Every structure is written in structure tokens, then in C-alpha cells.
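Lecture notes, unit on protein representations.

Consider one protein chain, 283 amino acids long.
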Amino acid sequence: PLPAHIRRNRSERDRAMSGAPKSMLYSRTGDDGTSALYTGERRSKKDPHFEALGHLDELNSVLGVAHHHCKAEANGLAEAVEEVQACLIQLMSHVATPRFLDELEEPDEERMAQVAFDVDGSKLGALERAIDQLDAQLPKLTKFILPSGGLASCSFHLARATCRRAERQLVELRANDAVQQNALHFVNRLSDFFFASARFAAHHVHEPEVAFSAAEYGEDNGFPLPQLGQTPAPVVTAEVERVGRVEARVAQLEAEAASWSRCVLPALGGIGIGIFLVRCVKF
């Protein structure tokens, strides 16, 4: 590869030719495989703090997909998802500010207080109450279920699995006293919230929860596969049915509007002509 100063000069030359100012989206400081924490310290991007930040960022992105599907299915969970996303940004600030810069330094308690996460436990309490409210509306679970239940539900299941991965990385940081215990409690409960949300979303769109059965899905049963050329029977989901009802209603309204325009508008036109003639006579 070319030396850094040559690459930089070429980039500056190309930017000058394009006439566009340099974007703030890139700085080139991470080209050496390091990144900066909120403390200003630069560490390898493989540092456990950046590993945890990457998992939390990925989780937040998955929640963006879940939020979209929640709005599309109108299940009422979109606002709660936004609250969780905001909490994750705050948690990432906490993770990006390690208590120790190195093994010899005393902890900066003032700095830690600025990015402390859920010190009073209010976020954890609100999350637990949300889990209780969702779970109280669902049938009792007696078997393991396979991730399923529609787009919003599956998105929550993906968020749950991603959250567990982030939690495992936070456990390592907590073992080194790099994050507070409250952060670990919150992430642990968060995956439970995603599980309850997944079940709620599935029941909202009347999608069945696929229960795991060792007898039905045992290894001796093999994997059922279709034959090439065979067209499987169409599966009409609740979302497809809902869209169909909406389209039918729109068609009905369009037909009523067309009928109204044929009957009423000519009459209104006649009234308008009459008023015009009366005004002309008066003039």
C-alpha cells in the first residue's frame, strides 16, 4: 500500500478537484486499526470495550428493523422500542468511558459519574414493569418455541439473540470492574423484554407460535423438502389478509367517489350556471 502521506495528498487533491468540502463522517485516524474512547485514549478496535460497543450498536440497528415492522403491524410497541434505543445510546457512553485508563491509574470518579448508567435503577424498574404487562396478556408458555410469528416478532427474536451476545461481552468488562453492575442488570433484563415483545407481536397479528417438540422435530424425521417443479400451497398470513382488506376498502371508496361525482357534480354545475346567468341579467 502507498504511504499514508501520499494517500492523504491524493485525497486532498481529489477533494479540491470535486469542489466538495471534507465530510465529517471520516477522519482517517482509525486507519491504523485503533479508535478513541470518550476519555480520549486510543485503543485497538479489538479491545473488549469496542467489542461491547460493536455488539450494542448492532443491537440498536436490529431494533431499527423491529421498530419499522412494529409500526407496519400497528402493535403499539414502536414507542417502547424507541425508548430502548435511547437507553442503549446512554449505555454505550458508559461503556466507552472505562473506569481505568491503565492498571496503574486511580479511577476518575468524577468522569465515571458523568456517564453513570441507571444509578437509581429507574430504567431497570420500568423495563421489568413492561415485561410484566406484556407477559400478563399472553398465554402461559409450556414449551420452547422456535423464532417465528411474523416480521416484528422475528425481529425481536433477532434482537434478543444479539442482546445476549452483548451481555456476554459486558460480563467480561464487569469482571475487570470496567462497567457498573447496573449496566449488566439492564442488559440481562433487556433480552427478556425482547422475548416478551416477540410473543406479543406474534399474537397481535394472529401468527401461531411454533412450539418445539422432540417427537416432531427429532433427528430421525429428517428434513422435509419440496420436489423441484412442485408449487407449494400459498400461505396467507395475517399481514397479507390485512393488506387485502385495506385494498378492498380503498376500492370501495373509489367506487363511491366516482358514483358521487357522476350524480352530484352535474347538478352542482347546473346550479353554478344558473347563478352566473342571474348575475349577468342583473348586470
